[in-house]
């Protein structure tokens, strides 16, 4: 079975968030298990600068509106393929800047999706399964059902993974003409969405199988609260919708041999974690006599989804309880401002770094005691998985993948791997932090919880096998139909 994973980002090539970790790790896990899997990505400028790629000598041409746009296909180690088109991808960012998304994102990803299919033909690579990820690859399933349903792709099935339903690739109706899809499909049963064109919806309609990244989120998105307007479409496909929990790459995230952190450590010898904490306090210019204070971290996109507004509201109380807060992230301009203001009010108690910094993220996971994820919704969340692996206990809202991966602390038994709250209110977050800080004062108990969290298994093996099972089931169904 040939599996082709199409995505707009994947480690180690390009990353803005969890999607890249998931795609990169899944590819790696499939290969490790001996499965024939390939990756297709746009060739962003950063990839060109950092990797030495081979030119396959193949070129594809895609009609976009009245234009015909061409791109060359590059490859890396015979596994990853890249669609080059400098006009669209030779830019510093993947999707846009803090001021907003690139204005031509519809054309960029129409081009990418069609170019992937053209490239398959040009390379003679006939996939059995195309595993699509988020709106950027949402048109692919519908292309396969329409203008690419020819012999070459006759046996190909698609699986569409929704990593975050909040991002749908919604564009003006006039952009539909750029897709080249049949005009009569532009209706509410098709990719039309309240007068606009919705790329993710195209994927939800066209794919044989739909997955999302946790069981709880798979149930949540069938409701109006979490469905972002697509709950009706998803309800119709409910029997083909599955939750497959994300993992993290245990080779990359391993406190026992992480070269980016101050000292390595393991559940049986936590002394290195104390050194990591000391180093982190120093790096954030927190004074040395703060060693007893719990350090709470947040690493992530600074977007409304991540619950930064209730964190900012609760921050005064949290620091007055004696905790230190470290925030690393970048995202929306408005949130940069409010978080910067909170950090300004609490110099020496809140440390903020606006930006993307992989190695600082590792040092934060290793040096902090708790990890804040007060998200409004969280399809899976990777931050809490990395935090637990490094012995930081999540303080998180009980939603989506957070509910599925964090075991709630039981004060009477001293069990659990983190702290959960339900209501999206600053007061509920504050009470949850208070409970965590109370548990933290009992070092023996805390270390018990921390070891438990570190020993949880969130590696990719079983989830990659689940995907493989779904590919097989979809293929078997398709073969019965042919
Ligand atoms: P999302 O996919 O919604 O952005 P996740 O929690 O699923 O959130 O994944 C985020 C991943 O990206 C985590 O591995 C986190 O450590 C990493 N990350 C997010 N922001 C930054 C940043 N500013 N610097 C370094 N790593 C980051």
Describe the structure.
The protein is an alpha/beta fold. It folds into 2 domains: about 1-245 and about 460-480, Glycogen Phosphorylase B (Rossmann fold, 3-Layer(aba) Sandwich), CATH 3.40.50.2000; about 270-455, Glycogen Phosphorylase B (Rossmann fold, 3-Layer(aba) Sandwich), CATH 3.40.50.2000. It has helices spanning about 20-30, 45-50, 85-90, 105-125, 140-145, 175-180, 200-205, 215-220, 230-235, 270-285, 310-320, 335-345, 360-365, 385-390, 400-405, 425-440, 445-455, 460-480; strands spanning about 1-5, 35-40, 55-65, 65-75, 80-85, 95, 100, 130-135, 155-160, 170, 190-195, 195-200, 210, 240-245, 295-300, 325-330, 350-355, 370-375, 395, 420. β6 and β7 (about 100) form a beta hairpin. The protein binds adenosine-5'-diphosphate (ADP). Adenosine-5'-diphosphate (ADP) binds near residues 382 and 383.
What's this, in brief?
The protein is α/β, with parallel strands linked by helices and 482 residues long. It contains 18 helices and 20 strands. Strand 15, helix 11 (308-320) and strand 16 form a beta-alpha-beta unit.
From the helix content, strand content and strand pairing, which structural class follows?
alpha/beta
Helix content: 25-40%
Task: Please name the CATH architecture of the largest domain.
Answer: 3-Layer(aba) Sandwich
CATH topology tier name of the largest domain: Rossmann fold
Ligand inventory reads: adenosine-5'-diphosphate
Strand order of the largest sheet: 3-4-5-2-1-8-9-13-14
* Strand segment tally: 20
The CATH superfamily of the largest domain is known as: Glycogen Phosphorylase B
Whole-number mean pLDDT: 96
Number of domains: 2
Beginning-to-end CA distance, first to last residue: 17 Å
State Rg.
Answer: 23 Å
Biggest beta-sheet profile = 9 strands, mixed
């Amino acid at each position: 079975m040939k599996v082709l994973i199409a995505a707009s980002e994947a480690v180690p090539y390009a990353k803005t968030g969890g999607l890249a970790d998931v795609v990169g790790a899944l590819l790696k896990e499939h290969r490790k298990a001996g499965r024939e899997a390939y990756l297709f990505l746009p060739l962003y400028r950063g990839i060109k600068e950092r990797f030495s790629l081979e030119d396959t000598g193949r070129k594809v041409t895609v009609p976009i509106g009245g234009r015909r746009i061409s791109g060359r296909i590059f490859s890396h180690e015979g596994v990853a393929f890249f669609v080059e088109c400098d006009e669209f991808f030779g830019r510093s960012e993947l999707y846009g800047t803090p001021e907003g998304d690139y204005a031509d994102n519809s054309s960029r990803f129409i081009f990418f999706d069609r170019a992937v299919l053209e490239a398959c033909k040009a390379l003679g690579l006939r996939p059995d399964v195309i595993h699509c990820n988020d709106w950027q690859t949402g048109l692919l399933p519908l292309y396969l059902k329409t203008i690419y349903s020819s012999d070459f792709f006759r046996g190909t099935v698609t699986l569409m993974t929704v990593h975050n339903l909040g991002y749908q690739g919604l564009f003006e109706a006039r952009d539909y003409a750029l897709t080249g899809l049949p005009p009569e499909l532009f209706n509410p049963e098709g990719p039309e969405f309240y007068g606009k064109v919705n790329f993710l919806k195209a994927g939800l309609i066209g794919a044989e199988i739909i997955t999302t990244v946790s069981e709880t989120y798979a149930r949540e998105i069938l409701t109006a609260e979490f469905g972002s307007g697509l709950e009706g479409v998803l309800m119709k496909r409910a029997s083909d919708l599955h939750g497959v929990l994300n993992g993290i790459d245990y080779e990359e995230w391993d406190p026992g041999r992480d070269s980016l952190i101050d000292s390595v450590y393991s559940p049986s010898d936590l002394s290195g974690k104390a050194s990591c904490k000391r180093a982190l306090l120093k790096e954030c210019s927190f004074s040395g006599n703060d060693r007893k204070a719990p350090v709470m971290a947040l690493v992530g996109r600074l977007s409304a989804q991540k619950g930064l507004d209730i964190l900012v509201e609760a921050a005064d109380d949290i620091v007055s309880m004696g905790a230190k807060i470290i925030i690393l992230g970048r995202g929306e301009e408005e949130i940069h401002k409010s978080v910067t203001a909170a950090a300004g009010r609490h110099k020496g108690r809140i440390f903020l770094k606006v930006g993307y910094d992989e190695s600082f993220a590792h040092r934060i996971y290793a040096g902090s005691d708790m990890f804040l994820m007060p998200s409004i919704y969280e399809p899976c969340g990777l931050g809490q998985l990395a935090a637990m692996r490094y012995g930081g206990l999540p303080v998180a809202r009980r939603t989506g993948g957070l509910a599925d991966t964090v075991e709630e602390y039981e004060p009477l038994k001293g069990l659990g791997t983190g702290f959960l709250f339900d209501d999206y209110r600053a007061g509920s977050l504050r009470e949850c932090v208070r409970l965590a800080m109370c548990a933290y004062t009992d070092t023996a108990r805390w270390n018990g919880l921390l070891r438990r969290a570190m020993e949880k298994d969130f590696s990719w093996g079983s989830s990659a096998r689940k995907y493989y099972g779904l590919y097989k089931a979809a293929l078997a169904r398709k073969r019965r139909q042919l």
